[in-house]
Amino acid sequence: MNLRNGTGSKKDMGQVFVVTSGKGGVGKTTATASIGAALALKGKRTLVIDADIGLRNLDVILGLENRIVFNLVDVARDVCKPTQAVVKSKKSANLFLLPASQTDEKDAVSEDDFCKVMDLYRREYHFILVDCPAGIEQGFKNACAGADEALLVTTPEISAIRDADRVIGLLSARSIESSLIINRIDFDMVRRGDMLSVDDVQDILGIDLIGVVERDENIIVAANCGEPVVYNTKSKAGPAFSKIAARMCGENVPMDDFGGSGFWERLGRRIGLA
């Protein structure tokens, strides 16, 4: 396999994952950065793309905000070469960022533009992770363009799960298979019956689970420092994101035993999904 000369067959191309949620504030950008960093640590050339035009944040999470010259919109408009817009991580030789524009409107690029950009990078990287904007408007449609699969991030909260269920349907209509990441779960609250369990969320959404990330204050510290939490092996979240990356690479990493159902019957009916 030659990642640079563009002569490989289709099977040599990298996989494109859109990281989405529907609802904002569930930790999607943090998940994109952390999984990208974990894949890079496994020796996979990984590109993370911020698709939130006008409101970029992925550069801050990665500590690369001061190194940006060009962006995704510049690549789509042929303002620069694809390699000129990519920023290399300070922590890993295998992790790269394609930032969003902060000054353009969200409709500055189309779905066709996104497909074009994905095609420009597919042979350069083993994995491409697209950090999708919140909502299901044009930004969502753009981020899904050219994606092979989706990582659906949700928290065990009513509004987040309801939005995630809607997004699953939209992805399915585009023939994009989704894998579930349950983020910020608090097992003490689950045991008290104050939060949906892992089994509850799986039962509601009905897609394969690829990872569970516990609530962890180290994520906030990592974001403020511009270093993905996977670099902190003492955190709860870091190893969880590393396991997700391993499963994406095809490794047989068993799921932990997260316990049984919580109060699915009570909340499932309330959100209209039971």
Short description:
With 274 residues, the protein is an alpha/beta fold. It has a single domain, classed as Rossmann fold (3-Layer(aba) Sandwich). It is 37% helix and 16% strand.
Number of domains: 1
The rounded Rg comes to 18 Å
Decide which structural class fits the backbone. Answer: alpha/beta
Mean pLDDT level = 89
Low-confidence stretches: 1-10
CATH architecture type? 3-Layer(aba) Sandwich
Main sheet attributes: strand count, strand direction, barrel closure = 8 strands, mixed
Strand residue content: 15-25%
Query: Shape, please?
Result: globular
The CATH superfamily label reads P-loop containing nucleotide triphosphate hydrolases
What is the fold named in CATH at topology level? Answer: Rossmann fold
CATH class: Alpha Beta
* Secondary structure: number of strands: 8
Kindly report how far apart the N and C termini lie. 47 Å
The helicity comes to 25-40%
Number of helices: 12
Return the string of H and E elements. Answer: EHEHHHEEHEHEHEHHEHHH
Main-sheet strand order equals 3-4-2-5-1-6-7-8
Which structural traits does this protein have?
16% strand, 37% helix, 274 residues, alpha/beta, eight-stranded mixed sheet, Rossmann fold, disordered N terminus, globular
What does this 3D model show about the protein?
- This protein has one domain (10-249, 257-270): 3-Layer(aba) Sandwich (Rossmann fold), CATH 3.40.50.
- α1 packs across α11 and α5 (111-121) runs parallel beside α6.
- Helix content is 37%, strand content 16%.
- Mean pLDDT is 89; it is low at 1-10.
- It starts with 14 loop residues before the first strand and ends with a helix.
- The chain has an 8-stranded mixed beta sheet, sandwiched between helices.
- With 274 residues, it is α/β, with parallel strands linked by helices.
- The chain has helices at residues 28-41, 58-61, 72-76, 82-85, 111-121, 138-144, 158-173, 187-192, 198-205, 218-225, 237-248, 264-270, and strands at 15-20, 46-50, 87-88, 95-98, 127-131, 149-154, 177-185, 208-214.
- It contains 12 helices and 8 strands.
